[in-house]
Design brief:
2 domains; binds magnesium ion; Fumarylacetoacetate hydrolase, domain 2; alpha+beta; five-stranded mixed beta sheet; binds 2,5-dioxopentanoic acid; globular
Length: 276
């Protein structure tokens, strides 16, 4: 089952059938334990749609939730970050956090700093080296259970983070720093570990970078990340948690204005962002 946030309401896709309701309060609609079960019941009272297109009426599947992110959960992220921060003496921090009991978790974005499918993400004016980070993103309800999954784009400044790891909040959080969407995938059982995450970047319609990785390559368990996130923080409306990137373009690559970023995650769909 997938749930989309539209301009005026919500659409549920189930086995090629579409159900809609408007208006809806997105926070109360999605922040429910056993979301799959309750939506199955809810849609019996919703209207049927003949077809549904993922177009500009689709919004990021977020209302008042915070977006948090995990770091250095894949080997590739550890290697790239150790290399980029070597000169600044920050290299060993990434190595240590990869193996430590406590994961790296950081506050990523407010809903206002987040764009949806087709939206424009931004590069900071004071940054010279920038990448998208394609990340499986968990939706966790206020009670702490993982209720769904979406696609996250953790836009990152490698020049700022590489200069000094203490600059992480500036490298990660700014206007237009996150992409989220196109829907929340709400399965009956947890997403299959062999599901693939793919990233492709286009410049002037030509493909300039392509990479993919399976979710199963992640070092940490989803529930482990959620456990740490909920230790001393409550989320009355639920929360999104990006789970880290396993795909980082080679060092000579940097994003440019106009680039198209396509992130696909099996079972969820495709999130397209353009660089402003
Ligand atoms: O350690 C800095 C951030 C790491 C990150 O965003 C990632 O691994 O995806
Ligand atoms: Mg990241």
């Amino acid at each position: 089952m997938k749930i989309y946030k539209t301009k005026n309401g919500a659409v549920v896709e189930l086995k090629n059938n579409f159900y809609y309701k408007e208006p809806v309060n997105w926070d109360t609609l999605v922040n429910r334990k056993d979301l799959h079960g309750v939506l199955l019941n809810d849609i019996k009272k919703w209207s049927r749609l003949q077809n549904f297109e993922i177009d500009t009426n689709i919004q990021a599947p977020i209302a008042n939730q915070e977006i948090w992110a995990s770091g250095v959960t894949y080997k590739r992220s550890r290697e790239a970050r150790m290399e980029e921060s070597k000169k600044a003496g920050g290299g060993s921090f990434y190595d240590r956090v990869y193996d430590a009991d406590r994961p790296e978790l950081f506050f990523k974005a407010t809903p206002a700093r987040t764009v949806g499918n087709g939206g424009k993400v931004r590069i900071r004016k004071d940054s010279t080296w920038d990448v998208p980070e394609p990340e499986l993103t968990l939706f966790i309800c206020s009670e702490g259970s993982i209720e769904g999954y979406t696609i996250g784009n953790d836009m990152s400044s490698r020049s700022i983070e590489g200069e000094n790891p203490l600059y992480l909040p500036q490298a990660k959080t700014y206007d237009g720093c996150a992409g989220l969407g196109p829907c929340i995938y709400v399965p009956e059982k947890p997403i299959a570990p062999e599901s693939m995450i793919s990233l492709e970047i286009f410049r002037k319609k030509g493909s300039i970078f392509k990479g993919q990785i399976a979710i199963s390559n992640m070092k940490r368990k989803h529930q482990e990340l959620v456990g740490f996130l909920f230790r001393e923080c409550s989320f009355p409306k639920g929360v999104f948690l990006m789970t880290g990137t396993g795909i980082i373009p080679p060092d000579e690559f940097t994003l440019k204005s106009g680039d198209e970023i396509r992130i696909q995650i099996e079972h969820i769909g495709v999130l397209v962002n353009f660089v402003a």
